[in-house]
């Protein structure tokens, strides 16, 4: 009888300990995800089932799509490689935070055949997600990249002397009854020229901007106001913002992968959020690429807000134009990284929908990487992605993989638990990488990128000065 019992136990144990992936001895499975390796690959077919867009009085929702995913109308069948995406993300980081970074832009991040490094308005096409809005009366539809780390909302305008290729027709100011150029001698223009200098000395009636880049290229155009209509995909509801500030680009050396421009969603004086007094907006970035997400302008109903956990947006006498919050810790596999509370009080923490991967100070990244590698030691390591991602795995020999859960903690007891797609970025089954990297040259900054935001609802209570995370409906 004892021999039969031992044989039965051995029979049960053997399948659980095979090399197909997870076993009962893997690192605390309650703090891990066990997933099929093939499920990590980006989808090639769009899920046409419509995401249930948030609806209600005083709000409007729009579809949000990855510009490189199968649901994109901008996709020309040419998606950039992982290394190319990371390089653009690195360029954008140097561009946006050039004032914070301590060293000059590396030569390998300056202009090449595929990339241009800008100094002010974003010209590098790292932004991943776009939506479609209407400008003018009658409406002209444009595809704008969503960016909570950019200020100006701008699009290429007709006539365009030298512009990058875009999928939509160029916005034609002459066809809009509500379009109005900002005069060069106006108070508004003087303020704008203080932020975006021009060298024309008001020789024309237009309020020009001329943005120079470190490689000698640039963007130029003029400032105007017009009407923007946010209209839901189901045509049941919309709202209009008029006038809002619009940058009309007539010369550009940038590349937006088919998009028309950018919707600037930060807190600066010139952003659409400030200029139109939008007090609340939220979005859910689709995970995976084969789904559609949404952005909602207006506050959610009180029934669903109980599932949203808020952390304060930092308020200082010199208010940042970005959405700065307070990081209190990171956990890997249920264990917090060993940093004191005083360490986090020194950090500058920002959330940015336009950044791709999350960036950490070097000491924190080293601790995160060490903890992650320890829990992934059974898997074969692979070469890194460029010089940015250094913790990658070759999973071709496995059917399933056990990935430790990573949770990011914010002030107020707010925990952002990442799913597998918020933890890993995938070039192929032979190159699956931890989606975090070092914040270059800055030991006191933390940037939450869009990889880690995917699949969650992110809420910007601008009036209440708080930022929230809740369960999303775009996975």
From TrEMBL:
Supply one GO molecular-function term.
aspartic-type endopeptidase activity
What region holds the Peptidase A1 domain?
A: 129-470
InterPro entries noted in UniProt: Aspartic_peptidase_A1, Aspartic_peptidase_AS, PEPTIDASE_A1, Peptidase_aspartic_dom_sf, TAXi_C, TAXi_N
The UniProt entry, under Pfam families, shows:
TAXi_C (PF14541), TAXi_N (PF14543)
**First and last residue of the signal peptide:** 1-18
* Gene Ontology terms: biological process: proteolysis
Matching Gene3D superfamilies: Acid Proteases
Q: List, from the UniProt record, the residues annotated as the active site of this protein.
A: 147, 352
Q: Which branch of life, at top level?
A: Eukaryota
Q: Which UniProt keywords apply?
A: Signal
- Which family would the database say this protein is a member of? Belongs to the peptidase A1 family.
Under PANTHER family, the record lists: ASPARTYL PROTEASE AED1, ASPARTYL PROTEASES
Name this protein carries in UniProt: Peptidase A1 domain-containing protein
Source organism per entry reads Citrus sinensis
């Amino acid at each position: 009888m004892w021999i039969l019992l031992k044989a039965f136990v051995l029979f049960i144990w053997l399948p659980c300990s095979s090399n197909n992936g997870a076993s009962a001895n893997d690192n605390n499975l309650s703090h891990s995800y066990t997933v099929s390796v093939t499920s990590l690959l980006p989808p090639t077919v769009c899920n046409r089932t419509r995401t249930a867009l948030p609806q209600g009085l005083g709000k409007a929702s729009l579809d949000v799509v990855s510009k490189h995913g199968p649901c994109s109308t901008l996709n020309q069948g040419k998606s950039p490689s992982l290394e190319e995406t990371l390089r653009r993300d690195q360029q954008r980081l140097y561009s946006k935070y050039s004032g914070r970074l301590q060293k000059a832009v590396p030569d390998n991040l300056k202009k090449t055949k595929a990339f241009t490094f800008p100094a002010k308005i974003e010209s590098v096409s790292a932004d991943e997600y776009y939506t479609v809005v209407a400008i003018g009366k009658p409406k002209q539809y444009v595809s704008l990249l969503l960016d909570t780390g950019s200020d100006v909302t701008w699009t290429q305008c007709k006539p365009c002397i030298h512009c990058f290729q875009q999928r939509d027709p160029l916005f034609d100011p002459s066809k809009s009854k509500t379009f109005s150029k900002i005069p060069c001698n106006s108070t508004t223009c003087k303020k704008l020229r203080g932020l975006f200098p021009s060298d024309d000395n008001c020789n024309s009636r237009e309020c020009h901007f001329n943005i120079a880049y470190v490689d000698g290229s640039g963007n130029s155009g003029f400032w105007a106001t017009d009407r923007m209509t946010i209209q839901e995909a189901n045509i049941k509801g919309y709202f209009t913002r008029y006038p809002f500030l619009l940058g009309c680009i007539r010369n550009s050396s940038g590349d937006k992968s088919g998009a028309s421009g950018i919707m600037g969603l930060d807190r600066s004086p010139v952003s659409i959020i400030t200029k139109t007094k939008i007090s609340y907006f939220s979005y859910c970035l689709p995970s995976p690429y084969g789904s559609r997400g949404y952005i909602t302008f207006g506050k959610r109903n009180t029934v669903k807000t109980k599932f949203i956990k808020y952390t304060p947006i930092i308020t200082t006498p010199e208010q940042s134009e970005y959405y700065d919050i307070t990081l209190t810790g990171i956990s890997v596999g249920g264990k917090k990284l060993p940093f004191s509370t005083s360490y986090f009080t020194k950090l500058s923490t920002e959330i940015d929908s336009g950044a791709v991967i999350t960036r950490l100070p070097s000491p924190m990244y080293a601790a995160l990487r060490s903890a992650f590698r320890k829990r992934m030691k059974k898997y074969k390591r692979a070469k890194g992605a460029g010089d940015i991602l250094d913790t990658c795995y070759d999973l071709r020999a496995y059917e399933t993989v056990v990935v430790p859960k990573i949770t990011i903690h914010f002030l107020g007891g707010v925990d952002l638990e990442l799913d597998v797609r918020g933890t890993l970025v995938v070039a192929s089954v032979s190159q699956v990488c931890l989606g975090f990297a070092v914040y270059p040259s800055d030991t006191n900054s933390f940037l939450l990128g869009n990889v880690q935001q995917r699949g969650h609802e992110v809420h910007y209570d601008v009036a209440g000065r708080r930022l929230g995370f809740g369960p999303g409906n775009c996975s």
